[in-house]
Write a structure and sequence with these properties.
Blueprint: H1 8-11, E1 15-18, H2 24-29, H3 31-46, E2 54-57, H4 68-82
Parallel strand pairs: 1-2
Length: 87
Amino acid sequence: MKSELVKPTHLARRAVVYVRQSTPHQVVSNQESLRLQYALRQRARELGWHDADVDVIDADLGLSAASAASGMASRNSSDGLASARSG
């Protein structure tokens, strides 16, 4: 299901899905939330992105924002967004 809001200029960029659960307990307890977050990759495909152009960032899944590893994945995604490589 395409959207009139998604323009060719958006599709020329990468789509980024950032999957986030802050603690290991949330990863185990919030399976439906996790499933819905991962399903956003398919939604991006439905909107017109090619599978190869959809990045899923989940490297810090289950880690708090205070964690150094969490900060790295967040920085990597925001660097891409800030540089206009992502739509």
